[in-house]
Amino acid sequence: MDQIIFNHDSVLSDVHMLCPNTRHLMTRLNRVGQPVFTSKYAILSDAERHGKKESPMTENSDTETRVQLQKDGEGGGERTVESGLDEDGDFDIAHRPRKESAEECNRDVICPVILKQSNVSTLLQEFDTDDEADDGYDDFIRIEHTMATPLEDVGKQVWRGAFLMVDFLLSNPLMFRAATAVDLGAGTGLTSIIMATVAKRVYCTDVGEDLLSMCQKNVTLNENMIKRAGGEVKVRQLDWLKSELCTDSDVEFSWTEEEVADIHDNASFIIAADVCYDDDLTDGLFRTLYRLCNNFFHACTILISIEKRLNFTLREMDVSCEAYNHFRHCLYQLEDMVDGQCKYTVEQLPCTFPQFLQYERIEHLELWKVTVNRVPSEKAEASQQLIS
């Protein structure tokens, strides 16, 4: 169990693949036998965001212009590497001194730490022992997740689209102050937890007992951060392929009548991070957005982050982004909709806001904003008459 096993249908998030130095604790196996890890992500401090201290995950971190060289007879020092010419006139490049090879240096193999039980207090104690050494960061968020899952379980991983949404939320805290928000397809709950640090209440929604239980554990792992900000997260089931919210009290993570009334009366934001990778699910997402917005009693704002993923398809015999293209089609269908209830305005937001998490913000990451305004009742009645 100390290695991630890839099958023919395995999908691995770039967040996990490109962060080999991130500490992962394997805590348990979930109900379908997948290893569950707990990772710790640093929220960058002001000094980190303004470049006063180099981040290990910055885009140009591997193109260093200065190296540490050991001087003869001294404990060490720093000097600039300069290139010169050898006797033949060729460039003579000074290279970083090689250290001992892996066979010579007795380095331990890095494997996940396996805990006997998935105990939240144990996890907190294990992670908190390192916090004092990480003084360059304002805070940390701890997330349970899986790695290398089938496509239907990708919500159990952490994705760059969620990091982009987190950056936007933390960059605009005043926008969400005292707000009630609904997080659709919340996955591990990362975006819900961060939203709760800037908003009043967040309904963290998805489907599947195993996934929702993971969300609840992540909320518990980060409850100190949430309480310190005065927020609240409620994990609830919301199936995009069903027309009604589940209010059956015998079903875990079901809604109460008071909570349904709360989102209808008070919800002003809907967020969805990197959830458009399957056309049927994308259709379900937009049907859910339409249904929720028509039940809201006032205007709301929808924020959707997405990563444009390029794939070679036999149908096109070219590189294309079919899931992304379908998302854009649904987005503009929503904007063109005339039902007499709501007016939808779509715009793409520039991704120039500060970066609060360490990841590669690639050009294929996008953030879309949909402003939903209620149509005045007189116009709504006239539109309904025309439609009928």
List the helices and strands and how they pair.
Layout: H1 14-17, E1 24-29, E2 35-44, H2 46-49, E3 66-69, E4 77-80, E5 84-85, E6 91-92, E7 113-114, H3 120-128, E8 137-146, H4 160-171, E9 180-183, H5 190-196, E10 201-206, H6 209-221, H7 223-229, E11 233-237, H8 257-266, E12 267-273, H9 279-295, E13 300-307, E14 311-313, E15 318-320, H10 322-336, E16 342-349, E17 365-374, H11 377-387
Parallel strand pairs: 1-7, 9-10, 9-12, 10-11, 12-13
Antiparallel strand pairs: 1-2, 2-8, 3-4, 5-6, 13-17, 14-15, 16-17
Helix pairs in contact: 4-5, 9-10
Q: How helix-rich are the residues, as a percent range?
A: 25-40%
Low-confidence regions: 53-82, 107-118, 131-137, 382-388
Question: What is the SS-derived class?
Answer: alpha/beta
Cα-based radius of gyration, to the nearest Å: 24 Å
Mean pLDDT, nearest integer? Answer: 79
Number of strands: 17
Q: What characteristic shape results from the CA principal axes?
A: globular
The string of secondary-structure elements, in order, is HEEHEEEEEHEHEHEHHEHEHEEEHEEH
Q: How far is the N terminus from the C terminus? A: 61 Å
The largest sheet has its strands arranged as: 11-10-9-12-13-17-16
Q: Tally the helices.
A: 11
- Largest pleated sheet: 7 strands, mixed
Strand content: 15-25%
Textual characterization of the structure:
The protein has 388 residues and is an alpha/beta fold. It has eleven helices and 17 strands. The protein has helices spanning 14-17, 46-49, 120-128, 160-171, 190-196, 209-221, 223-229, 257-266, 279-295, 322-336, 377-387, and strands spanning 24-29, 35-44, 66-69, 77-80, 84-85, 91-92, 113-114, 137-146, 180-183, 201-206, 233-237, 267-273, 300-307, 311-313, 318-320, 342-349, 365-374. The strands form five sheets. Strands 11-10-9-12-13-17-16 form a seven-stranded mixed β-sheet, sandwiched between helices. A hairpin with a 7-residue loop joins strand 3 and strand 4 (77-80). Helix 4 runs parallel beside helix 5 (190-196). The longest helix has 17 residues, at 279-295. The protein starts with 13 loop residues before the first helix and ends with a helix.
